[in-house]
Design goal:
heterodimer, A: alpha+beta, 6-stranded mixed sheet, globular, B: Enolase-like, domain 1, binds flavin-adenine dinucleotide
């Protein structure tokens, strides 16, 4: 059993800084710059000759555009271009999975905030004012804004032929048997935003060859490039992308934002064009997490063992497809949680509405489902009189089990152990007689001195696929060069893997140091002059781009040793490369790297793939859909002022299997941040949409947790190496976002004693007023 | 846009009169947000940051004369004893950065129904000192200052020089509801002040009506009940039924709406819970002090 092979480390002290190799908490090369405020984010991009681009957006969730009149806008002094759909030279359509989204709306607008026209001017303010003078004649159309109505026969069609994006049907284990214990519930999850701090920004610079160089904050340069090329009608060699400083992503930068717009304006004006959203525009400029309505039923034996599960999940995809189909894929194939269930029936739907488009966000379809299956697991525990940890351990997956798509879990699945760990972590002390206000619900807002405060504890466990699934060709490319520079061995690593703050560049350096034994590793700017690295999403980059860098290093090493073998007249198999030395079988120094390389550099480029995944059967949902699974558990302790409905999360502790921690500090950072984001969804984070209109597009009213909302965490990092993955890594970034929210929601329910079947839980849900 | 920087109060008042298109600028934590969103494009900004007397406070005739430009951070550090209700409210404003820049004068200038300084100023019976070059100082009781949503009684040529707040003669409390535990605009807010010297009760409610306002009936009711039960003298326990009856009257003074921050029903409910709790804390403080 893999549990014997692994080691368990409790990361309460910072990881070893060491030499910066795999397993060390190597320093981030961008760390000091970011902490001191000197890091150049995309919003800091500058060119002396640049003009500013702005976007005119639709005020209506659904309308026909009768006419657009740009004459008046063009007369504003300082304006250099005003563009509409007619000015898109290539396909006026883009999209991650389906190219269904216009670069600029032509006939219809389908959501509030949809781009309609672009303006470039010598000052952003001038451009904004000119944009207000673009006259758009709209014929407002009825909008479908309730996902539950979207598939009704009479519902307005957002797209032809209809509003269904995907229906995933999953059946396993035959008809559900009759069960002595049956529990069921409905659950609803609101629309969460990624709320990254660095709004969308980019700078497009027209080049002499008629092409364009785009500097932009994104998650996947090559998928952007593909879509931009189609819209501009240009070949990839003419459309070159370089990653600009990314201030957070969380899925919100998978779809295009300023990309094509800035390029169109730059090509039209012949000038560099900068586009940079403000906070309000950012809320309209990227996709959000799908709101979901879910109906779940579990049937079980009297001891609590699951006999069957039925689930229906409905994801509101908003106006365009984005990654809705893949989110439905995750919700459907993983949406019953990390449990062994003999008979399963799942129907997951994604639909079009005239709400804001929804797409990728950390946790991707699993977050919504986890709220439902974990709430129902608590119901089941109570119904059979079993402890809430024990019921999960009883039903929890183990290595070798089949999941609900019939796929073998072929590496560690420590569900029971993770729950055991979190349930045994020390509990926070009881509230004293004179508690500090900051430790109470409401904090210094001074709403309670202890009155009405009830403590609750909640547990949740999850699993999430790592990497792209359902047969997607998921690969990454790495180019590694080794050379002597100034008497020192220097490795240069070049990938297009987007660093979005998670620490990929540190990991790339650590892998090069480990494989080549060098100290100095230069990270080449991320751009499209190297092959695709795939997306910085699905918790995949350390695994996939890490794998590619490792493979490229191995190729470089082999090439160097081949050369050394020639020079030394020995077989390459008996040589080793260690930094600046070529050593023999017993470690004896045979030559210096300088002797072997001279002024040459050895460079290798490798395209690396993880094990293939497969499409699922359209009738049964069965298949080897995923490449790896990552598990985490949380225990939340909350104090709720039950009379006012205010919540203070007192503790949020977690255990997570990360396979191998390449950088232990970075791993804990991901777990802290992911946990906060999950807690935010449970308690406060929601884009409120009424009749297709976003009502809180600002950080004044879209609340994310502050330091007074987030408790200190006990984080236990478990390392059961995955034998199929490079170094045994397992994706880290998403699981904490999935299990933390349901644990917090469960703790609130425990304190309040009400079902609370919707998140975010608002104060009035608790008080019933 | 002109940027006017008077170095004295007199100069500031003259500029205010001469430039009706100018927007006064104190800490800028409201003004700059408005400018950023292009909600406002005034002809000029009248920066009050260089007028020294606006940034001072002193005690005179039993009142703190609080310069309009004193930031929240100093109210918290320096006035916790004299103006405990205002200091408690100041502590809930924004983040440390906002409390360093933002001022009570600016809060009054904006006159938002959610302004946190307003309920304690109402409960304490504060007076706004408006001034103009033409007419000198005009005193406006804070209860008459707010005239509508984000509107107030200032004349176009007037500036707020200071607010005169009676030094506390008894306990004061401030409570505010927000959906997170810091940096949050009030969903509802309540302030109360006990004035044992006058055997009176003061209140202020926020975010539950078009303007901040007093709950005058509740004040009179509680003061009267305390009187008839002899509690002002005996300092006996505050009966829970009395606290509840007071809370019902506080809520009756509100006329809240539903919005993204909360429902009207929750606003009323939370207001009454805060009123009950806060008045009980204040009364217990009074008993302990005895
Ligand atoms: C992130 C953030 C969080 C916030 N949180 C809170 C909160 O929790 N509670 C809260 O109440 N507010 C909050 N605010 C709003 C703001 O901080 C307060 O209203 C503050 O009191 C404004 O003071 P200021 O000095 O910055 O005013 P300014 O922005 O300089 O001015 C505000 C208004 O008052 C006018 N004005 C200023 N001084 C004078 C004067 N002497 N005479 C006449 N008019 C004058 C200005 O013209 C303007 O209309 C927040 C703001 C931000 C940006």
């Amino acid at each position: 059993m893999s549990t014997d092979a692994g080691t368990r480390s409790t990361t309460t002290t910072p990881g070893r800084v060491g030499y910066g190799r795999v397993g060390d908490s190597a320093r981030r090369p961008d760390g000091t710059l970011k902490v001191t405020g000197e890091f150049a984010y995309a919003s800091d991009l500058w060119h002396d000759e640049m003009v500013w681009g702005v976007t005119l957006r639709s005020p209506h969730p659904h309308a026909r555009i009768r006419r657009i009149d740009i004459t008046e806008a063009l007369t504003v002094p300082g304006v250099t271009a005003v563009l509409t759909a007619d000015d898109v030279p290539g396909d006026n359509a883009f999209g991650l999975e389906h190219a269904d989204q216009p670069v600029l709306a032509s006939e219809f607008v389908r959501y509030e905030g949809e781009p309609v026209a672009l303006v470039a001017a010598d000052h952003p303010e001038t451009a904004r004012r000119a944009a207000k003078r673009v006259r758009v004649d709209y014929e407002v159309l009825p909008a479908v804004t309730d996902a539950r109505r979207a598939m009704d026969p009479g519902a307005p069609a957002v797209h032809r032929p209809g509003n269904l994006v995907r229906h995933l049907r999953l059946r396993r284990g035959g008809e559900a048997p009759t069960a002595p214990v049956v529990v069921s519930l409905d659950f609803e999850v609101g629309m969460q935003d990624q709320a990254f701090l660095g709004p969308e920004s980019g700078l497009a610079v027209p080049a002499e060859d008629g092409g364009i160089d785009l500097y932009v904050a994104t998650q996947w340069l090559h998928v952007d490039q593909r879509q931009i090329c189609l819209a501009l009608g240009m070949p990839p060699e003419k459309v070159r992308l370089t990653l600009a400083g990314v201030g957070g992503a969380f899925g919100g930068r998978e779809d295009l934002s300023v990309h094509v717009h800035a390029c169109l304006l730059a090509l039209r004006t012949g000038k560099p064009v900068k586009m940079s959203y403000g906070r309000e525009e950012s809320f309209f400029g990227h996709v959000h997490r799908h709101p979901a309505t879910m109906t779940y039923e579990f049937g079980a034996q009297r001891d609590g063992s699951l006999l069957y599960a039925k689930a229906r999940l409905l994801f509101d995809g908003g106006a365009y497809a984005s990654s809705t189909a893949a989110v439905v894929g995750n919700g459907g194939t993983l949406g019953l949680g990390p449990y062994r269930i003999p008979s399963v029936a799942v129907d997951a739907y994604g639909v079009f509405t005239n709400n804001p488009p929804c797409g990728a966000m950390r946790g991707f379809g699993c977050v919504q489902a986890a709220f439902a299956h974990e709430a129902l697991m608590d119901e089941l525990a109570d119904a059979v009189g079993v402890d809430r940890v024990a019921i999960r351990q009883l039903n929890g997956m183990r290595e070798g089990d089949l999941n609900i798509t019939g796929q073998v879990i072929d590496s560690a699945a420590p569900v029971g152990e993770l729950l055991q760990i979190v349930s045994e972590l020390p509990l926070p002390p009881e509230r004293g007689a004179h508690p500090d206000l900051r430790s109470l619900p409401g904090a210094v807002n001074n709403t309670t001195h202890g009155e009405g405060v009830v403590r609750g504890i909640g547990y949740a466990v999850t699993y999430k696929n790592v990497g792209f699934s359902e047969g997607f060709d998921d690969y990454s490319t790495a180019r590694v060069r080794l050379e002597m520079t100034g008497g020192e061995a220097v490795a240069t690593v070049h990938t297009a893997g987007a660093e979005v703050g998670q620490g990929l560049i540190t990991v790339e350096q650590q892998i090069c140091r480990t494989e080549l034994g060098v100290e100095r590793v230069v990270v080449h700017p991320k751009d499209t002059t190297v092959g695709s690295a795939g997306s910085t999403s699905a918790s995949r980059q350390t695994y996939v781009t890490g794998g590619a860098v490792k493979a490229a290093c191995e190729a470089v090493r082999a090439a160097v040793l081949d050369r050394a073998a020639g020079v030394l007249r020995r077989s390459a198999a008996e040589l080793r490369l260690d930094g600046e030395k070529i050593a023999g079988p017993s470690g004896e120094l045979l030559a210096g790297l300088a002797d072997v390389l001279g002024d040459d550099a050895v460079e290798e480029t490798v395209e690396w793939r993880h094990r293939p995944t497969h499409a699922i059967d359209p009738e049964t949902g069965q298949g080897e859909a995923h490449v790896q699974f990552a598990f985490s558990a949380h225990r939340a302790v909350v104090d709720v002022d039950v009379e006012l409905g205010l919540v203070k999360v007192v503790a949020l502790d977690t255990a997570q299997d990360v396979g191998t921690a390449i950088n232990p500090d970075a791993v804990v950072g991901q777990i802290h941040g992911g946990s906060a984001q999950g807690m935010g969804l449970a308690l406060m984070e929601e884009i409120i949409v009424t009749d297709g209109h976003v009502r809180n597009p600002s950080f004044t009213d879209y609340l994310i947790p502050t330091i007074l909302d987030m408790p200190p965490m006990q984080v236990t990092v478990v390392e059961y190496a995955d034998p199929h993955a490079p170094y045994g890594v397992r994706g880290v970034g998403e699981p904490p976002t999935i299990s933390s929210g349901p644990a917090v929601a469960a703790a609130v329910r425990a304190a309040v004693g009400k079902p609370l079947r919707r998140v975010p839980i608002r104060p009035e849900h608790i008080t019933g007023t | 846009m002109d940027f006017l920087q008077p170095a004295s109060w007199q100069e500031a008042l003259e500029l205010r009169a001469a430039r009706p298109d100018a927007v006064p600028l104190a800490g800028g934590t409201d003004v700059m947000v408005e400018l950023n969103f292009d909600r406002r494009r005034p002809g000029a900004l009248l920066d009050l940051g260089r007028v020294p007397e606006l940034r001072t406070w002193r005690t005179e005739d039993g009142c703190v004369r609080l310069g309009a430009g004193v930031p929240y951070a100093r109210v918290i550090d320096e006035l916790g004893k004299q103006l405990p209700g205002l200091a408690m409210a100041a502590r809930t404003v924004g983040s440390p950065q906002i409390r360093i820049r933002g001022t009570v004068g600016g809060n009054l200038g904006s006159s938002s129904p959610a302004g946190d300084a307003h309920p304690p100023l109402l409960a304490a019976g504060a007076v706004v000192q408006a001034a103009s070059a033409a007419r000198g100082i005009r005193e406006i009781p804070v209860a008459e200052f707010f005239t509508g949503v984000k509107r107030n009684a200032l004349a176009p040529d007037e500036l707020i020089g200071a607010v005169r707040v009676p030094v506390a003669t008894g306990p004061q409390q401030f409570s505010k509801i927000g959906t997170r535990n810091a940096m949050v605009i009030a969903v509802s807010a309540f302030a109360c002040a006990l004035h044992p010297d006058r055997r009176a009760v003061g209140t202020g409610i926020g975010s539950v009506a078009p303007t901040p306002r007093r709950a005058a009936d509740a004040e009179a009711f509680l003061a009267g009940e305390l009187e008839s039960a002899g509690l002002w003298e005996s300092r006996g326990e505050l009966p829970e039924t009395l606290a509840r009856a007071f809370a019902v009257r506080v809520a009756a003074a509100a006329s809240p709406i539903d919005d993204v921050r909360g429902t009207a029903a929750y606003r009323l409910h939370s207001l009454s819970v805060m009123a009950r709790r806060a008045v009980t804390w204040a009364w217990n403080d009074l008993r302990e002090a005895a």
